[in-house]
């Protein structure tokens, strides 16, 4: 029941839960290019790069428990790309398969006008079929295919860039 889930801006105190959810995906080698878990301290600068008015970091929670998060990040850091944002989502393993990813991405799309974002991008490994299907279901299209750009445990992996105009 998605009505039981609430999205809010992340607070500094949420960072350990955000990092724990992120780190839970490292070993599966499907979601992140990090090969080892990261520390809360190492994510300090990343956390501070977010702004509720332009590049938010959201958590989704139910009954006081953080069960996922979504971040908007600048695509390239140059002024001409200001209306483009990369979106990332991570869901706690206990809450996967409950349409939280779809809920978060649709919420991100709805927020784009007030964030002055016209284009959203998703960077997804080519072997991450669940994420590719999720983004495609919501109308993202394949805009780029970067073959064998990452190496995870000796296996070269493709990166797919999906995009969606949201205005």
What this model shows, in words?
This protein is α+β, with helices and mostly antiparallel strands and 167 residues long. The chain is 23% helix and 35% strand. It has 4 helices and 7 strands, in the order βααβββαβαββ. The chain has helices spanning 15-23, 44-48, 100-115, 129-137, and strands at 6-9, 57-62, 65-74, 84-91, 119-125, 141-152, 155-165. It has a 7-stranded mixed beta sheet, sandwiched between helices. The longest helix is centred in the middle third of the chain and has 16 residues, at 100-115. The chain is globular. The model has no long low-confidence stretch (mean pLDDT 94).
SSE inventory with pairings:
Blueprint: E1 6-9, H1 15-23, H2 44-48, E2 57-62, E3 65-74, E4 84-91, H3 100-115, E5 119-125, H4 129-137, E6 141-152, E7 155-165
Parallel strand pairs: 4-5
Antiparallel strand pairs: 1-2, 2-3, 3-4, 5-7, 6-7
